[in-house]
Every structure is written in C-alpha cells, then in structure tokens.
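Quick start: read one record
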Amino acid sequence: MKVARFALIALLAVPAVAQQPHDISGVDTVNPDSIIAIPLPPKSQRQMKKYESPELVGARQAIGSQLVDGELPHPLLDYMTKSGLIEERLSMFEGGLTVVSMSGSGGNMHKKLRIPIDALAAYRRAASPEKLALIRNGDVSKPATDRHSLLRIYRADGSHVELQFDPAGVVPKTLADEIRPLEDLLRVVAEDRTVTSTLPGYEPAVGDELVGDDQRIWRVERVTEKGLVQLHCTGQPTIVYIDKHFLYNYFIGKRAAQ
C-alpha cells in the first residue's frame, strides 16, 4: 500500500478568512465535472502566498442554504459574459451574497460567498442603474453570436436596467468603469479556494468522503488529537496524511449521495 505524507505546516499559512466551523453537512457536494478554482501558474501561486486579494478582504463563507423563506434574497445585479465555449456569471444579492458560475471545456464552477456590506455598497456605487441607463445601444458594439456580455442592475422597486454588448468591441468609459470591478471580482473568486470554498473550517469525522481535484474519492479513516487526518483513496491502495486546516488545498467538496 502506498503511503504519502505531506509536510504542510512549514509551507502554508492558515487562510485569513472568516471560517465557520462545520461538519460534512456544510461542505458542498461535488458533481463529476466540478472544479474549485482556475489553476494558477507557479509564479502567481508564489505571489498569492504573499499577498491577500483586496477584493476578498472581510468576505466570509456562505455555508449551507442562503434561501430566505424558501427564496433567494432580492437580486441587485447580474453580469454575464460568453466568449466561445467559456461562460461566466456573477450575481449579487441583498445582504452581500455573491454567486459566481463558470463553465467551459475545463469543467464547471459554482461558488458563493458573502462580501462585506461596505464592499457591496462600493460595487453598487460603481455599477448603478442610473449610470447604466445613460448608455444607449448605439454607444456599444452589438453582441456577436459567440461573444456577448450582459449587465443587468436592479432598482429598489424591483425593476431593472440592462445592456447587452460585445465585450471585444466598443466599450465606453462609463460602462468600463461599471464592469471593471465586477471582472476583477470574478477573476479573484475563480482563483480562490479559501473563502469561496466550504472546506476551510470543516471538522472531519471518520467515514466522511471527500473529492479531490482529480475527482478521486478519499475516505477519512482517522483524525488525531492534533488534527492530522488520515485519508484512504477508495479507488486505489493509497493513504495520505493532511493537517485538517489544509484540506482545502487538496479537495473540492464532498461526495454526492449514492
């Protein structure tokens, strides 16, 4: 039987995010084509260890259902863009709930987090229905068949203003100032695997089954008093030992119910 030991404590720092201690029920279920983050080149990975993404400062995990009386909180804005096979969508809701979805040849990603109220207010000041309403269809390039974007911003009464355009065409400064912060947030969320993952804060228990980046299933066999987790690959005779605080670096969620 193969045994892998990861010396993690000296290499990594505990993620500086607002974690909610939770059991396996608070970990998101993983579909066969799910990914947790866009892989970064080695140079960017080294930089990310040194610097915290300002877009995620003060953000916290959105563990479990975010429904209010069985429904999502009121929407504030949607930003969607499609280029070839890649589709991206960012939606913001009252209370700071932010949902990001991406799909493409590499897999599908669906994440949620809660951003601070002051950050939410800043995004809403940058992208307001009043500013968007000033931009006419003739001010932007028409959407192409395989390339288009849409920005929809809701008013307080529930009505909305929206604009569709070609992101590679003419984009006036007013529109660019509205979408640039949203694009930055999309990128950071796509690369993150701390506050936008439900693994940080997870308290493992014997019998829990987690899914790795490679879609292999790992079962928790033992958890020591010091928090070292022994996991056994269900499809191969392989065992790994990982500090529970760093499981988010290797796993993307829990196994779907059989």
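The first strand starts at residue 2 and ends at 5.
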